[in-house]
Amino acid sequence: MSRPKSQSVAARGNDTWRLTWELGADPATGKRRQKRETFHGTKAAATKRWRTVQAELDLNPTSLTPNPATLTTFWTQWIATLDPRQYSPNTLRQYQDAGRLHVLPRLGSLMLSQLTPMVIQQTLATLAQAPRHDGRPGTLSPTTIHRVAIILHTALAQAVEWDLLPANPCDRVKTPPAGHYQASIWDDATVQRFLRSTADDPYGIAYSLALYAGLRRGEILGLRWADIDWDARTLTLTQQRIRVKGTDGKYHDQFARLKSSHGYRTIACGSALMDSLRAQRDRQEKDRAAVGDDYDDHGLVCQTVTGRPVGLRHLNRAFARAMKRVGVPHIHLHELRHTHGTALFEAGVDLKTIADRMGHSQISTTARLYLHPSITPQEKAAELLDRQWSGEGPAVDGVRDKPGPDGHK
Q1: 111 has which bridge partners?
Q2: Burial group, residue 190, by CB count within 10 angstroms (0-12, 13-18, 19+)
Q3: Which residues contact 166 (CB under 8 A, 6 or more apart)?
């Protein structure tokens, strides 16, 4: 292949180049078509990039033909192909909201071929100054912007699979980091005090399931009596309760499949949790007798006095009232799950076991998000260094007497 023409690799600043490929005339209009790209680096690297793409174009002349579809048209088609059996209602809603609120108002009118890494990077940067859409003051959170970037990458990956784009421009975009979340957890004394004080509460079983089994809120409200194996002392998770925004713009609670395949898990229960489950079963029998024929039993471990499913927000409010009554530090209900994981870790339980109980596919997720060791182990570590470097213990010629790698002194 001959060297690229001078206008095919044109300087646009310090180590910035405009690459241009000729795609021939449009068969419908006869107009000239080109593919352009901005490249950052040396001229040699820019020329190499031009040659690589030109070689692909020589082999497949239609590989870089600009796709006439706008991002809005593609996004609508992509959303329509997502199988509800493979995605939770909340995930589908997040995809739709990301497009409707953030992506399409800014990029929707562009052709897919116009979605360059620079355009996408600049768009993500503008989101940092965008106002919230829930009416509250402030701008979009880093977590929201991070989620939008991930969803856009997912969408354009599908465009590549459908041969609408030669490559995913998001691959060369720096994804904004998600916001740092620091969970609050209770110490052992607070947990013991709270469990004792709420043992007879209508939703005391929910708090026990979060602390002793590490269940999520939706998993607690989806747990059925049929999922309890009394002989094996286990519970098996098969569904969850979620809150979904409907087409009417209002939120509704409904049952759904679990968050991931690892969410379908069996958890061993200790004596304390089994006792709480038995007490809850007895409590429901009293409710059934008191309500009579109007008792609408849904077979759930945690349900109202009339047998109906408990609302997700209702459980949150009940937990807030319980904390205020008992006089313990205020935390979110989900942070009882963090407390569960941290307590197991500090008790010496291995990370794989903790991840299995919590339904995580990767141990790194458990370690990064759900373990919050207290300062006590660090205090012990500091004391060990104090003793080690305070002159205690024999040392000869500046070398402390300790076993070597082979076990010999």
Answers
A1: 70
A2: middle
A3: 56, 63, 64, 160
- Dihedrals phi, psi of 376, to nearest 5 degrees: -60, -45
Contact between 287 and 226 under an 8 Å Cβ cutoff? The reply is no
Smallest CA-to-CA distance from 222 within 242, 246, 203 is with 242
Q: Name the percent of the chain in helix, strand, coil, to the closest 5.
A: 50, 15, 40
Interval 156-213: pLDDT, tens: 999 988 878 888 999 999 988 887 777 899 999 999 999 999 999 999 999 999 999 9
Query: How is 284-338 classified by DSSP, letter by letter?
Result: HHHHHHHHGGG-----BSSB-TTSPBPPHHHHHHHHHHHHHHHT-----TTHHHH
| CA torsion angle 263 267 273 276 (round to 10) | 60
* Residue-wise pLDDT tens digits, 297-335: 999 999 999 999 999 999 999 999 999 999 999 999 999
Q: Which amino acid is at 6?
A: S
How far apart (Å, rounded) are the C-alpha atoms in residues 168 and 158?
A: 9
89 contact partners, CB below 8 Å, separation of at least 6: 242, 244, 254, 256
CA separation for the pair 393, 409 (Å, rounded): 14
Count other Cβ atoms within 10 Å, centred on residue 338. 23
Strand partners, 251: 245
280 near 301, Cβ under 8 Å? yes
